[in-house]
Design goal:
The structure holds 2 protein chains of 2 kinds.
Chain A lengths: L1 H16 L3 E6 L5 H7 L8 E6 L4 E5 L2 H10 L4 E4 L3 H10 L6 E4 L17 E3 L1 H9 L3 H24 L6 H14 L4 E9 L19 E10 L2 E2 L2 E7 L4 H19 L7 H14 L15 E3 L23 E4 L3 E3 L3 E3 L3 E5 L4 E3 L8 E3 L2
Chain B lengths: L14 H18 L3 E7 L4 H7 L7 E7 L5 E4 L6 H7 L4 E4 L3 H12 L4 E4 L7 H10 L4 E4 L1 H9 L3 H19 L6 H14 L4 E7 L9 E2 L10 E9 L2 E9 L2 H15 L13 E6 L7 E5 L13 E10 L2 E10 L8 E2 L7
Parallel strand pairs in B: 1-5, 3-4, 5-6
Antiparallel strand pairs in B: 1-2, 2-3, 7-8, 7-9, 9-10, 11-12, 11-13, 13-14, 14-15
Classes of the chains: A alpha+beta, B alpha+beta.
């Protein structure tokens, strides 16, 4: 259902742009463009879909194991195993050399396909796909809402899993196991634990949880390929007064950012609203790229979709976009703190999807 | 995009092992007259860079620049806030952070020699944006493909890599061995919990939920009813080394026979192929940057037999007494007259 809707939207956009064939590249890190057109959630190797304007999709994969899976999971697609994927796709495109062909995301497409010796030329179709990826249908938003419910539940599990003496990777094992039990196949999750010595989140390490630690996580489960994220921070034991004072800044910044989300606002407006709170508290330095990457981002078939919420990103927000607003950064009195809620832009503002309270949680030391 | 434990162990991957690999590469680069070698890495193509440095990206992408002599430089698109994490989990001379990794890598090479001969592993498959940036950053650099050179060095596993594969296989076997539950979700959850608790860097589970109907694997999303026999495939990484294992449930006796036949089929590799009695089969191993490339198989045209000393993962389907059994395990290809052998016994009976 979702796949068919996407395919129809893509075909219509291609016709409008005068594109006969769209080449979509994907891998397990950035698989959203490929999944949009071919409805395959790639895990291993490269995948390239050639989508014709009449809706016919051919999917080329260089992993034999993935080919078998794609044959079952993407039943409407012609699947080809191609150990040398660039040349196999090139042979296919040779048959369409006189047609208008575009590629997305063009910068990820194997170099060989863009060499001037080829019989065909690939225009950049990235912006066309980005528009489709950012503006969600009702069905896509429903999947994101379901993913947000799962994220809330998983954060509850996270609070139960964090105990002194446990290693970070053991906690992540509990969460991933919980998600698999819920039938959720994918998740992007990073974690941090400690104090002022921690400057961000990473994949889990062997570090043990200790009393007094701030424990941060970004949980991003997916439903039917659509990711929804939640960011929260907890303390092992009683939060100190300075930890609480620090956390209050993030609550204020998150609320300011969410209040700025409405159709017609720009991504930059949301980032500025969050950062102004930090500046007001004399913490403006910690809104720079030295301390934080983004102040939020889009959500969808990729966990870190466009638009990025930064003061220099002027993408106009429109109803139907899905975002996370997260003023995550370092605080000099407490360490790295995260707090973020997933939301959907609506006609009059936004609908916040996360239901987990915006608290600095405490777990037993 | 999931990841479990990413940590470097100086016991499992000592400096001396990584330096020996770099020394071999440096010698080969000298013979090929390369001044520098460039290897791309991301979430799905980590195997070249992790083999030389231990670095495994959980996100984003990077280029490893290996000079013919001297320490390698890792150029990553990850922000410098994770520099300390990269330095903790890998062994590189320097880490540079920039969104345009191709540009920075080329500039770095060109600083030493503007017309340097640069070998690029999997040059054809390099993301075009990075290739364009390499040309912009070093317009005088002479770029060419170095896949064959790298693949030849990478193919034969050293004792450290074999030990990591054995550990990955042991984790996978243990995890599939404790599989329990009334539903597919519960079973998969139990396997995943065990594997990650034992330190797996990653585990992808796929299921063939009713072998009487379908013998191909699917990703598990939502709940599915299970047939009287079904199979799980675990694709598992431990500290950068990937293996696949398969367990068939509900057919203990024939699964034992299938495990025995798999061991027999593997033994003559890389010479004779012993898979004639199987319905389908596949042998995968690392050639350059992808952990498990298809090398040989019933659906693979133009086989690339693994050389003696290579690590591979083997999966196969076989019919025994009218029952379909799926079986799989990693194997070490024999050398100097030794038989090839499975690293773990895929019999879970």
């Amino acid at each position: 259902m979702l796949a068919e809707q996407r395919r129809q939207r893509l075909a219509a956009a291609m016709r409008e742009a005068g594109i006969d064939h769209m080449v979509l590249y994907g891998n397990a890190w950035q698989g959203d463009y490929l999944r949009y057109g071919a409805d395959f959630g790639i895990l291993e190797g490269h995948g390239i879909a050639v989508v014709a304007a009449d809706g016919v999709v051919e999917l080329f994969l260089d992993s034999a194991t993935e080919v078998e899976r794609a044959e079952l999971e993407a039943a409407q697609v012609q699947v080809h195993f191609a150990a040398d994927i660039a040349r196999a796709v090139g042979t296919r495109l040779d048959r369409a050399a006189n047609d208008r062909i575009a590629a997305a995301p063009r910068r990820f497409v194997p170099r060989w396909l863009l060499e001037p010796e080829r019989n065909f030329a690939l225009a950049d179709g990235t912006a066309l796909l980005d528009q489709l990826l950012m503006h969600k249908t009702a069905g896509e938003l429903a999947a994101i809402r379901r993913a947000a419910r799962i994220a809330d539940e998983a954060y509850g599990e996270f609070r139960r899993a964090v105990r002194p003496g446990r290693r970070q990777y053991e906690i992540v094992a509990d969460i991933e196991s919980h998600l698999r039990r819920r039938g959720c196949p994918d998740n992007f999750m990073i974690i941090g634990s400690g104090g002022k010595d921690v400057f961000g989140m990473t994949p889990p390490s062997e570090r043990r949880i200790a009393a007094g630690d701030l424990v941060t996580t970004e949980l991003t489960p997916a439903v039917e390929g659509y990711f929804a994220q939640i960011c929260r921070t907890l303390v092992v034991g009683k939060a100190s007064a300075s930890q609480r004072r620090a956390f209050d800044v993030y609550v204020e910044a998150l609320e300011a950012g969410i209040a700025a989300v409405r159709p017609g606002a720009r991504a930059a407006d949301v980032a500025r609203a969050e950062n102004d709170v930090f500046r007001k508290h004399g913490l403006g330095e910690y809104t720079t790229s030295q301390w934080t990457r983004v102040r939020g981002h889009g959500m969808g078939l990729f966990a870190d979709s466009k638009p990025h919420i930064l003061e220099d990103v002027n993408t106009v927000l429109e109803s139907g976009m899905a975002l996370i607003v997260h003023p995550n950064t370092y605080h000099p009195d407490a360490g790295y703190i995260v707090l973020g809620d997933a939301l959907v832009v609506t006609d009059r503002g936004c609908e916040v999807l996360c239901r987990t309270p915006r608290e600095l949680f405490e777990v037993a030391a | 995009m999931r990841r479990g434990l990413i940590a470097r162990s100086l016991v499992e991957l000592p400096d001396a092992v990584l330096q020996a690999r770099l020394d071999r590469l440096g010698a080969a680069m000298g013979e090929a007259q390369f001044d520098a070698l460039v290897i791309y890495t991301n979430n799905t193509r980590p195997a070249g860079v992790s083999w030389l440095t231990g670095f495994v990206p959980y996100w984003s992408e990077g280029l490893l620049v290996v000079p013919r002599a001297g320490a390698p430089v890792l150029v990553v698109a990850l922000s410098f806030r994770v520099k300390a994490w990269i330095e903790r989990t890998s062994r590189v001379g320097e880490v540079l952070h920039t969104p345009r990794i191709g540009l920075k890598a080329a500039q770095r090479i060109a600083t030493a020699r503007a017309d340097a001969a640069v070998g690029i592993v999997d040059f054809e498959g390099l993301p075009s944006g990075i290739a364009e940036d390499l040309r912009e950053g070093g317009p005088g650099l002479r770029l060419s493909d170095a896949s064959a050179l790298f693949s030849k060095l990478r193919a034969k596993a050293d004792p450290a890599e074999i030990a990591l594969a054995a550990r990955a296989a042991a984790i996978g076997r243990c995890a599939l061995g404790v599989a329990a539950g009334d539903t597919l979700g519960a079973i998969v959850a139990s396997v995943e919990a065990e594997a990650r608790s034992l330190g797996a860097e990653e585990i992808y589970l796929a299921a063939a939920t009713d072998l009487d109907r379908e013998a191909r694997f699917m990703r598990v999303e939502g709940e599915r009813s299970l047939g009287k026999s079904f199979a799980l495939r675990a694709t598992l990484a431990y500290k950068g080394t990937w293996v696949r294992l398969v367990r068939t449930f509900g057919a203990t006796a024939v699964a034992r026979e299938a495990a025995s036949r798999l061991a027999q089929a593997v033994a003559p590799l890389p010479g004779d192929c012993g898979f004639s009695g199987f319905r389908s089969w596949l042998i995968e191993g690392c050639r350059t940057t992808q952990p498990l490339d298809a090398l040989m198989g019933s659906r693979v045209d133009g086989s690339t037999p693994p050389p003696p000393g290579a690590l591979v993962s083997v999966q196969a389907a076989v019919s025994i007494d009218g029952q379909t059994v799926l079986v799989g395990a990693p194997a070490l290809i024999g050398g100097r007259g030794e038989a090839s052998s499975l690293i773990v016994d895929p019999d879970f009976g």
